[in-house]
Amino acid sequence: MKQRSLFDVISPIMTGPSSSHTAGAVRLGLLARNIYKDIPSKITFRLYNSFAQTGKGHGTDKGLLAGLLGFNVDSENIKNIFNLSIIQNIDINYEYEQNLDRHPNAVDFILEGSINMIISGNSVGAGNVEIVKIDDFATKISGEYNTLILFYKDKPGMISKVSTLIQKENINIASLDCDRNARGKTASMCICLDGEIPQNIISEIEKIEDVYFVRNVRKLEA
Question: Is the pLDDT of residue 55 over 80?
Answer without folding.
Answer: no
